[in-house]
Write a structure and sequence with these properties.
11 strands; single chain; mainly beta; 118 residues; globular
C-alpha cells in the first residue's frame, strides 16, 4: 500500500520560496507509468493542480503557476519536492501530494497547511 507524507515549513514570509517534500513509501517513484502530483486548496476554495513529475523525471506545470513552480525528485530517498517562489498571502493553502495525474489519483498525503504571512 502506497503512502505519501508531506513535510515542510508551515509558515513562509511573503516574497520567499515555499519548499515542501513528499516522502513516498510502499512504491517507487520511478515505477513505470506512474506520476506524482502537487495539489493545493486555498481556504474556502476548490482544489488546484500545481504540477506533476512523471516516473521518468519529466515535469509539467499549471500554466498559471509555471513561472513560479519547480518540482524535483530524489530517487535515493524516494521523495519528490515542490518549490514555489515569490509567494504571497494568496498562496496560503493546504498542500497535498498525490500519486496520479489528470485528476485521477489513487493515493494522497494527508496534506500540510502552509500560511504565507509576515
Amino acid at each position: 500500500q502506497v503512502q505519501l507524507q508531506e513535510s515542510g515549513p508551515g509558515l513562509v514570509k511573503p516574497s520567499q520560496t515555499l519548499s515542501l517534500t513528499c516522502t513516498v513509501s510502499g512504491a517507487s517513484i520511478t515505477i513505470s507509468s506512474y506520476a506524482w502530483s502537487w495539489i493545493r486548496q486555498p481556504p474556502g476554495k476548490g482544489l488546484e493542480w500545481m504540477g506533476v513529475i512523471a516516473y521518468d523525471g519529466s515535469t509539467y506545470y499549471s500554466p498559471s503557476l509555471k513561472s513560479r513552480t519547480s518540482i524535483s525528485r530524489d530517487t535515493s530517498k524516494n521523495q519528490f519536492s515542490l518549490q514555489l517562489s515569490s509567494v504571497t498571502p494568496e498562496d496560503t493553502a493546504v498542500y497535498y501530494c498525490a500519486r496520479g495525474s489528470n485528476w485521477c489519483y489513487d493515493s494522497w498525503g494527508q496534506g500540510t497547511q502552509v500560511t504565507v504571512s509576515s
